[in-house]
Amino acid sequence: MPYLHPLPSQSSLPLNGVTTQPLRVPTLKNIALSGPYMHDGRFLTLEAVVDHYFNLGPRAIRYDRRLLRTTFDMQQKADLVAFLRSLTDEDFVRRYAAATALARNSSP
Question: What are the residues whose beta carbons fall under 8 Å from the beta carbon of 59, sequence distance 6 or more?
Answer without folding.
Answer: none
